[in-house]
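tool_call predict_complex ligand=adenosine-3'-5'-diphosphate
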Amino acid sequence: MQRSDFYRPDHEQCQALLNGVEAAGRRVLDIYQRDFEVETKADQSPLTEADMASHHALVALLEELTPQIPILSEESGEIPFETRQGWKRYWLLDPLDGTKEFIKKNGEFTLNVALIEEGVPVFGIVHAPVLGISWWGQEGVGAWKVQDGQAAPINVRGLPNPEQAAWKVVGSRSHGSAEFEAFCAQLPRHERVSMGSSLKLCLVAEGAADLYPRLAPTSEWDTAAAQAVVMAAGGEVFNAHTLEPLRCNQQDSLLNPFFIACGQRSPQWEEALSYALNAVPTS
Ligand SMILES: Nc1ncnc2c1ncn2[C@@H]1O[C@H](COP(=O)(O)O)[C@@H](OP(=O)(O)O)[C@H]1O
Ligand SMILES: [Mg+2]
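tool_result ok
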């Protein structure tokens, strides 16, 4: 879909953004490889100096590249909805997604940068410094996985027939829920993979996983960048209650509804989805 007055990073700007996010990732990696302090935020979630180093690096990058576009970051403090409501487009950042995984040192954390246009994540970069991989995608253009300087196009995969191959379902490593368990219990034959951060959505985008049911809380900055990648790769991220695509900045709260990410839809998937959702009250 082509929106009016749409800002599209051109090829050169995409490369500058990717380079800048990877440079911020190197600063995060420096901290990851040594001892660091862990604070607890007001919402009881952890914060490290890497979250803040990444936040400052990403904000500096975006302010230089697109000084006219406002920025909302997990670490930027509250911006009232009255202000945000007036934003036609803005950058949405999670400087360190998967802070718990960063602290556990299992490498499953990412830097997330999304461009939101009229509530829709239209461009996103997800960078995993320990893996040395970035995924990025842009509405109407495509999605790529970048490793060792090589960019390969990615696409979601068609859902396999579960009689021939188990569906691959990804779930959070640190934030499971009874709803997620109940949903999975109603699915056809599948195997589960636990993973931290936006990497779950990236696995769906590159066709390495079929479903990511997130029936537990997340915030918009946790998902927007990878949602842009999933959608640019041909997949969907939709509200588990209304089945509408997930949108950002629609209300005061920045919490997402429960959602499901999937690759290509199929009649078998629609049937399994409604069956599984019927068994699970979602919010
Ligand atoms: N109760 C809660 N409310 C809001 N967000 C939550 C939450 N519990 C976990 N999250 C979000 O889930 C993210 C981690 O996702 P996952 O479990 O898939 O790795 C966290 O990102 P951060 O690490 O950026 O804080 C956090 O934002
Ligand atoms: Mg996060």
